[in-house]
Amino acid sequence: MTELSRLPASRLRRLMDTDELSPTALIEASLEQIERRNGTLNAVVTASATALDEARALERHVASGGMRGPLYGLPVGIKDVTEVAGLRTTYGSPLYADNVPDEDALIVKRLREAGAIILGKTNTPEFAAGGNTFNEVFGRTRNPWDTDLSAGGSTGGGAAALATGMIAIAEGTDLGGSLRIPASFCGVVGLRPSPGLVPTWPTHYLWDDLQVTGTMGRTAEDIALVLDAVSGASPLSPAVQSVAGREFAAAVRRGPPRSIRAAYVPDPVGLGIDPEVARVCHEGAVALDGAGADIEEIELDLAYGFDAFLALRGYWMAAHQYRHLDRLDELGANVRGNVESGLRTTVRELAAAEQVRGRIWEEFRQLFQSYDHILTPCTAVPPFPVEQNYPESIAGRAMNTYIDWIAPTFVLSLTGLPVACVPAGLDASGLPVGLQIVGRPRSEEAVLALAGRIQELRPIGLP
Q1: How many CB atoms lie within 10 A of CB 392?
Q2: At 425, which helix (H) or strand (E)?
Q3: Between the CA of residue 348 and those of 246, 414, 430, what are the distances in Å?
Q4: Per the omega criterion (within 30 degrees of 0), is the bond before 202 cis?
Q5: What is the β-pairing status of strands 169-174 and 75-79?
Q6: Is 79 one of the annotated active-site residues of the chain?
Q7: Is residue 413 among the annotated active site residues?
Q8: How confident is the model over 180-195, as pLDDT tens digits?
Q9: Would you say residue 462 lies in a domain?
């Protein structure tokens, strides 16, 4: 049962198509994994009491002639900042410790319509603020490869649950790296899709084009399978893009063309990179080169995007927490500090940040005239002790804030481009290391196809 629940979602789906596996059996296997591992990892914070009933109902529906949806029977974990009707949704904040929404978020509606089963809510920092997953409501999530270490954040609960077979798909959000960092730390695949591909609703910042909704999977094909089901425009959201004619899973199964040309950037923000992280990512790029792709190492300095992201993030935090401005003293230090920073940000600083964002877009537009993809390490450090809020220094350089260390991911958020994180190998301590793949505008298919090829070339297994 343990090995069954750890199979890729795409394979589980095929087994259910041929009736070699039933939704009930898969949910039972997933619940068994929660029973075995969650007490240590603290990944699933609120389990659904109706998951088995929903699995049986799906089976009856099919037995009576109903169709199997594209995600038929797959157990999904929903990040605890995304609303699920009738299931406690706390946002990791004591302010909402007993909050039970009346309506599903849009992505949850689409997951259910596709046949997925919501297994429960996964842990997150308060209001998803931070690269290490802990909060005052549920405590800390631990890394399944080494439980003394962080699972990353802010979708850390989803990544830890995914890596151990508690769920088959992890839903989450990504502002500055929240789907990519935990994917790197936990050895799974995460995709930050381009804004609007998966509309975010409900939200307290309706015109947001900086944070996105997305997923993690055990394979690139798993993410593509879900994208086929949950992407596309909705009248609920003004920030959307069309998916007409796009087939994500089919593109991943076809694989990338052999003629790919990619640039490898060893340190995109001059932060310094842990030597083992640098080695594994370089080897991942070299493996592609040996498999027929043309990989060229280049220098790219995006450090000028650092202050721009902080300014836009501060504005983003103030917009999202506007309803709580009279209760800032009740928020945790990470969230409160970001909101206060946002309130201090001037119009001049925001205008400058938008100019920098445009400059980064132009720089990537030029790069994509020569390259199909940009490859770069996902994190500057391997997983750090779970009790730390953040790594205090990298390569001897002190970090000024709790998000400095995630600059390799957050500067790429400024581009609005699709960015995946895929395991590139294991470091000398046996911990997974993630490699980021940046693609051209609205090229999620190509990004995931290349991620799938790297998984074939550099398999790491599961913890």
Answers
A1: 12
A2: strand 419-426
A3: 40, 18, 46
A4: yes
A5: parallel
A6: yes
A7: no
A8: 999 999 999 999 999 9
A9: no
Pair 265, 363: CB distance under 8 Å: no
Classified as helix, coil or strand, 17 is helix
Q: Which of 10, 48, 93, 178 is catalytic?
A: 178
Of 93, 154, 194, 231, catalytic: 154
Domain assignment present for 439: yes
Residue linked to tokens 């940000």: 345
Contact call for residues 169 and 198 (beta carbons, < 8 A): no
Which CATH number is 386's domain given? 3.90.1300.10
pLDDT digits (tens, 9 = 90+) for 269-280: 999 999 999 999
Are 305 and 431 within 8 A, CB to CB?
no
Domain presence at residue 463: no
Is residue 401 predicted with pLDDT exceeding 90? no
5, 79, 237, 413: the active-site residue: 79
Q: What is the pTM of this model?
A: 0.98
What phi and psi, each to the nearest 5 degrees, are found at residue 245? Answer: 80, 0
Q: In the annotation, is 178 catalytic?
A: yes
The set of residues, in sequence order, having a beta carbon less than 8 Å from that of 106 and lying 6+ positions away, is 199, 200, 201, 202, 234, 236, 237
Give the residue numbers spanning the domain of 48: 2-457
Mean pLDDT over 442-453 rounds to 98
Residue 146 lies in a domain: yes
In the 3-class helix/strand/coil scheme, how is 305-321 assigned residue by residue? HHHHHHHHHHHHHHHHC
Number of domains in the chain: 1
